[in-house]
């Protein structure tokens, strides 16, 4: 009897709501049908509890419980049909689901209060009220909304990257326009998310930020791709040889011969290090772009944390504290990407763009007539471009990397410069003076790099240069001693040829051997011939 009466009343409420909706269809800001129905059902349930249940108890001890269970089922059937047709997340859908959630809580409360004195505490009634799971439906809809937004962001990232030319002149900050567009879409997605009328922002925010993190990580990866690496630009080391005691390398290179050797070397480098398509200004633009992302991601993370702290979610402080890790992958990738691009920029300048004055020109033939000045003049122009283009927060890092690459380049010329080079004891002063000029360029009378940074990274060069002032007999003794120390008693019968590590050190056998290979005197040549049968340079 109770269930039948409730069914009739539920149908009456539905008809009343439909009639009301028809009469007000031309009015704006209409509430969704199921939201109004939920309010009507809730009002009916409380009225039934207050007016009819006390009378009906004489026929059924849990009259109110039976009534609300019936109402719960009736509304649930209508809601189920509604949910099955849901596509995209809209404000109306959220309003209906929140109204359904509130109604269910009201009905469960009435059932529990009415069943306090029952034997099972109302469990049998509650079992007849399978939950609407409105919160779960909302959660799934929001997750679907997030997926759609992230797919759109991924499309924007790819589209903007395809059009990106990495020209620093496109805006006054010298970073890529694509970064502006991508960050705008990210900001809009975050703002739209926090405008959703839900109570689970903090719970679902990691889904959004993790997806954004991956999209930006994809952008960063593309920004670094195609730029090469250090090894892309460094020339391969020629085989070890000894100086010709017949020519002694003094004055044997005329200008024409030196030019031909330089051209030959340039051609060789061009074939082994083919990546010369990216200009320095484009690399600087990429560095600036990653720096811009790094700054803006920090701003976005703080803004998201502020939104979470102001949200309705429970335990919001604990969740907000964890937001410090938002965009963690992208932020880390920005730092690493900037480091890589700084190194690539430096090595491209020194070993590719300036190879004609460093690798192909410095100390070729007579040291006194092929000094470092041409390299310094052209290098200074690149440093000016960097100073005018690169973001001030990473400018020092780029210039420091250029300095380190220049020092590496000088050592490579001295220790692995190939047949065009040979050094006499008297060349030491010239080389040392050239190195001082190189350091002075980066110091720039106090306006450039700090003196302690220059000193820190010049340690290896300063340690190796004295070897070029050490007499040949002493060098041979040092080499033999360090080789024996390295290889032990097995090296006594025959000195092994130490492998090239590229880690230059005045006590490392291969470094000492290379100084001997480029020492232009008879003693060094005879030792190398007797010990290793190394071929002559020319």
From TrEMBL:
Q: Which residues form the MHD1 domain?
A: 94-237
The protein's organism comes out as Gossypium trilobum
Domain named MHD2 is located at 369-479
Q: Name the InterPro entries for this protein.
A: Munc13_1, Munc13_dom-2, PATROL1_C, unc-13_homologue
Pfam families (alphabetical): TPR_PATROL1
Q: What is the lineage of its organism?
A: Eukaryota, Viridiplantae, Streptophyta, Embryophyta, Tracheophyta
| Protein name (database record) | MHD1 domain-containing protein
Database matches in PROSITE patterns: MHD1 (PS51258), MHD2 (PS51259)
């Amino acid at each position: 009897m109770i269930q039948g009466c409730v069914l009739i009343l539920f149908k009456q409420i539905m008809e009343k709501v439909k009639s009301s909706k028809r009469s007000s269809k031309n009015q704006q800001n209409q509430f969704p049908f199921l939201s109004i129905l939920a309010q009507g059902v809730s009002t009916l349930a409380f009225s039934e509890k207050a007016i009819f249940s006390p009378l009906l108890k004489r026929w059924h001890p849990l009259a109110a419980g039976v009534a609300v269970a019936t109402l719960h089922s009736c509304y649930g059937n209508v809601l189920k049909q509604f949910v099955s047709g849901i596509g995209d997340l809209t404000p109306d859908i959220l309003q209906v689901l929140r109204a359904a959630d509130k109604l269910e809580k009201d009905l469960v409360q009435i059932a529990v209060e009415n069943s306090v004195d029952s034997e099972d505490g109302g469990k049998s009634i509650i079992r007849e009220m399978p939950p609407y799971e409105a919160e779960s439906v909302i959660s799934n809809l929001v997750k679907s909304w997030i997926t759609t937004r992230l797919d759109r962001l991924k499309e924007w990232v790819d589209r903007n990257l395809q059009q990106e030319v990495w020209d620093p002149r496109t805006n006054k900050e010298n970073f890529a326009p694509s970064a502006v567009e991508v960050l705008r879409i990210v900001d809009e997605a975050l703002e739209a998310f926090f405008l959703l009328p839900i109570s689970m922002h903090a719970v679902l925010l990691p889904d959004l930020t993790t997806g954004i993190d991956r999209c930006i990580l994809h952008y960063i990866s593309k920004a670094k791709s195609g730029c090469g690496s250090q090894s892309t630009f460094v020339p391969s080391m020629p085989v070890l040889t000894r100086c010709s005691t017949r020519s002694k390398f003094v004055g044997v290179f005329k200008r024409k011969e030196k030019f031909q050797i330089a051209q030959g070397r340039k051609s060789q480098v061009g074939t082994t290090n083919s990546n010369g398509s990216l200009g320095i200004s484009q690399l600087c633009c990429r560095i600036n772009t990653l720096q811009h992302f790094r700054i803006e991601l920090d701003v976005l993370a703080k803004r998201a944390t502020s939104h979470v702290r102001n949200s309705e979610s429970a335990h919001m402080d604990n969740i907000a504290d964890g937001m410090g890790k938002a965009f963690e992958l992208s932020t880390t990738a920005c730092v690493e990407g900037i480091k890589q691009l700084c190194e690539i920029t430096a090595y491209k300048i020194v070993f590719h763009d300036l190879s004609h004055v460093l690798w192909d020109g410095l100390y070729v033939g007579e040291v006194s007539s092929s000094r470092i000045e041409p390299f310094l003049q052209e290098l200074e122009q690149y440093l000016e471009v960097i100073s005018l283009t690169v973001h001030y927060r990473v400018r020092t890092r780029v210039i420091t990397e250029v300095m380190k690459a220049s020092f590496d380049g000088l050592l490579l010329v001295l220790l692995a410069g190939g047949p065009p080079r040979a050094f006499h004891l008297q060349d030491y002063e010239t080389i040392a003076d050239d190195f001082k000029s190189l350091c002075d360029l980066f110091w720039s009378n106090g306006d450039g790099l700090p003196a302690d940074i220059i000193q820190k990274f010049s340690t290896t060069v300063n340690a190796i240069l004295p070897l070029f002032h050490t007499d040949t007999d002493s060098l041979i003794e040092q080499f033999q001693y360090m080789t024996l120390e390295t290889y032990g008693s097995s090296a006594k019968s025959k000195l092994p040829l130490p492998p090239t590590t590229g880690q230059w050190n005045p006590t490392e056998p291969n470094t000492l051997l290379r100084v001997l290979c480029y020492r232009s005197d008879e003693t060094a040549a005879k030792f190398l011939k007797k010990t290793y049968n190394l071929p002559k340079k020319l």
